[in-house]
Amino acid sequence: MFSKIKQRFRDMSTIKALCLGAEKHANANGQKEPGAEHFVLAALELPDGTARKAFDRIHIDPEGFRAAITQQYQDALRNIGIEMPQHSAISDATAPIPPGTGLYNAQPSAQALMHQLVHQRKVESNAPLLGAHVILAVTSAQYGVAVRALQAMGVDLTRLAEAATTEINALRTV
What we know:
- The protein has nine helices and no strands.
- The chain has helices spanning 2-28, 36-44, 50-57, 64-79, 90-93, 108-123, 131-139, 145-152, 157-172.
- The chain is an all-alpha fold.
- Helix content is 65%, strand content 0%.
C-alpha cells in the first residue's frame, strides 16, 4: 500500500512537469492553452527519457517534431489564405505569453490526451507514469496537430506506439 501511495506522488510530479512544460511550449508560441503537441514536446524533455528513446528506437529525430508542428500551423494558415514568409516561424510571429495563473486550461487535443493517460493509468496502475505513456496516448489520436506533425515527419504511428510500449516495458523489468 505504501508503494502505491509513493507511486501516486511520483505520477503527480510527472503530471505537474508535463503540464508546466506543455504550458511553457504553448506560451512560447503565443498560445494561452497547450495542445497535445505541446505535451509531446514536454514528454520529450522528461528526465525518464522514454519518450525520446521511443523516437530514437524507430530512427525519428525528436528535434524535428518542433519544426513539423510549425509546418502544420503554417499549412493551416495557408489553407485559409494567409501566407507566412518562408523564413518566419509561428513562434517568431507572436509574442510569448506569460504563464497562466489560476485554473489549468488546455486545448481539446490536450484534454483528450490527458483522458487517454488516465485510462492507461487505470489499466496499469503499478507502473510509473513516463514520457513514453504520452507518446503512446498521442498515437491513439485520429486528428490534431500532434498526429499531423508526426505523419508529416513520416512516422508510422503503429511503430511509434510499439516503440513507446517497448520503452515502458523495459522500465518495468528494471
